Each structure stands twice: as C-alpha cells, then as structure tokens.
C-alpha cells in the first residue's frame, strides 16, 4: 500500500529587495545628514592655583570671548542688552548663581562692567571661572 504524500513546499527567501532597500536608506541618510559641529565659544580662561571646583546647579553662565562679545544661552548680547536678558533669566532661577567665563585677553575693566551688570540684574553668588594651573596640586607650594 502506497500513500501519496504531498511534497513539501519549497521555501525560498529572496533578500535582494531587502538589500536594495537597506542601501537606499543608507544612501538617503548619508546624503541628508549634515556633519555640523558645534563650534561653541572659544575661550582661553585665565589660570589660578587656588581655584575650586564648583558644583553645577543650573547656574546662569555668561561667556565673554576675546573680541568682547557677550554670550548668554548661545545668543550674543550687547553690553546694554545684557541686564534685561539676564534679569529675565535669573527670575526663573532659584539660586541666582551667575558664572562668568571670560577669555584671559578681555580687559579687566570690561569684565568688571559685566560683573556689575550681573549684580544689577539681581545675580548672587557671582563666580569667575578659571582653569587650573597644570602641574600644581592643591596645597602645594
């Protein structure tokens, strides 16, 4: 007695269209992505041996570059506009802490003007950011 068994169905997976789609997506992302690097603000901070590390607790940071341009939240401000914008920013801040990051080439008189504006805008705990002198350990003389 012989039974006729149904022959197995041959399975065949054609992956050529899948590879085509993957290469098309790869090509799409390569052509549409832009390699923009955030240049940031180039500063050369002054050095200090007695500087202390401050805990970052959402301070308001003011940057002054060597061309005496003032940056607050990546926006450039003139000296006259800074107080109003800083006061608005500090209104939402609980600690009213202001960190000043100024290039060492900026004249001290300009830095003092910015510090004065920060105080007029109700900024408290004004911190001047520096970089640590290399090779000097804390407490070393």
UniProtKB/TrEMBL annotation:
GO terms for molecular function: transmembrane transporter activity. One of its GO terms (cellular component) is plasma membrane. Belongs to the ExbD/TolR family. InterPro entries: ExbD (IPR003400). The lineage of its organism: Bacteria, Bacillati, Bacillota, Clostridia, Halanaerobiales. It is found in: Cell membrane. The chain crosses the membrane at residues 15-36. This is Biopolymer transporter ExbD. One of its GO terms (biological process) is protein transport.
């Amino acid at each position: 007695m012989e039974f006729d068994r149904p022959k197995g169905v041959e399975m065949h997976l054609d992956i050529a269209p899948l590879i085509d789609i993957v290469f098309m997506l790869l090509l799409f992302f390569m052509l549409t992505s832009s390699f923009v690097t955030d240049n940031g603000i180039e500063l050369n901070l002054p050095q200090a041996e007695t500087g202390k590390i401050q805990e970052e607790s959402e301070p308001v940071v003011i940057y002054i570059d060597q061309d005496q341009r003032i940056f607050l939240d990546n926006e450039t401000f003139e000296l006259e506009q800074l107080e109003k914008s800083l006061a608005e920013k500090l209104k939402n801040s609980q600690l009213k802490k202001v960190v000043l990051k100024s290039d060492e080439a900026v004249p001290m008189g300009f830095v003092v003007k910015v510090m004065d504006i920060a105080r007029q805008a109700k900024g408290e705990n004004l911190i001047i950011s520096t970089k640590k002198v290399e090779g000097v350990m804390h407490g070393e003389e």
